[in-house]
Amino acid sequence: MNNSExxxxxxxxxxxxxxxxxxxxxxxxDKIIRKLYEDNVMGKIPExxxxxxxxxxxxxxxxxxxxxxxxKHTIDAANEQSINTDRFLALVKKYTEITELDAEIIxxxxxxxxxxxxxxxxxxxxxxxxxxxxxxxxxxxxx
Length: 143
Hints:
By secondary structure, the protein is α+β, with helices and mostly antiparallel strands.
């Protein structure tokens, strides 16, 4: 596992932990609001205080729910990326010792190829090509 994979795994664990903490806090806020309501009905706290406190808890809960949606999306995307990477690596292992490149291998590895307009740079004709691989998409290689 290289450094970027370790960092991604660490970020995923942090997101999952924050997700669980937010869910727990939402459940706690539900209990607090229920208790506040009961205290208000029983006359233990003034109406004004009840409305102020319940509004604060409702706002916190709404913020947490929005954060949970974002975290869920992040976690799902990270899991999907991990699955796609594993699929691609399995495909690479399948073809580690190819002797001839044929149409079947290309179809399994490549989703699409974009060929850009040719340009002249320093008197030389160059043409940019972008390859989108199945499972992992385009890869930006350092120059």
